[in-house]
Amino acid sequence: MRPRLPWMPDWPFDPPISPMEAKVRTVWPEDGWAYEPKWDGFRAVAWSDAGNQEGRLDSRNKRPLLRYFPELKAALGQLPSGTVVDGEVVVVTGDHLDFDGLQLRIHPAESRIEMLSETKPARLVSFDLLALRGEDLRDEPFRERRERLTALFDDLGEPWNLTPSTTDLEEGQRWFDEFEATGCDGIVAKRLDGVYVESKREMVKIKHRRTVDCVVGGYRIHKDGGKIGSILLGLYNDVGELHFIGHCSGFSTTDRVEILNLLEEIKSDDSFGDEVRRPGQESRWSSGKDLSWIPVTPGVVAEVSYDQLTGARFRHATRFERWRPDEDPDECTLDQLERPEGPGFGEVVL
Question: Are the C-beta atoms of 59 and 43 separated by less than 8 Å?
């Protein structure tokens, strides 16, 4: 433990840190692992009040989060001095995680932040304990950190929640299916004897993945020019309007050139409906990026795979699987999207 002066915070290591990460795998690790839900929120490291210094809440990228979530300051005050907890900031609406609501909390206006802190208050889901009362636990095995986190949780109240954890592979696989509706977008596996390694992908993440047939409604030119950057995907709503649902950009250089040649032949004046979500709309996440796009006549169908939905759109870029010339574009509708059912957030966390 580092030497400490009276005026120094009593955390055993200095903030901020880069949290331990996970690598995506399709095969479940067995024997000697713990399995936990992967929550759909903002990763955050919570630091207790320390000496004359207020607590901290830092993002995965070491950026302060308390400005956007002022209601969580009191939660940090519940932690014993010298304690650091790894977890997730979430927003819960109707007993299910609300990622759109969480994104709304990142706003430049203080008045808006204060209003949203009351109308869409955030919660903290804890899943690892890095320090307790000034003791550095990062070199302790996960099984020990989990036991001490569980014991600590007995003294914590709202808005803290403790993620469930199991060493039973079959139970973890059951959670993978049953907890998706809650806001669990997969399972994270952790070695029971594993230490906490900052910024390294030492955990394993098993994510949901589904396929869907989409209509190509447009494209963006690659930043280097002369080839496709991404294709824009749509699905028809119940009144026949093409609704922008996401994009796909994972193509080889040769394919990018061929796809551009194909789509240039079917350029049109418009493709997505005027009353639905359209590509190219500015948001605080676009950061001045060039969002211009070229519409095409709807008719080309692509099968893509995706991991998560947010509302009626793909959360992340999709993965191209194959072209579907045999598929009728009119059959590519929003009702293809599977909406999982299962328990609510309050039934899953402790």
Answer: yes
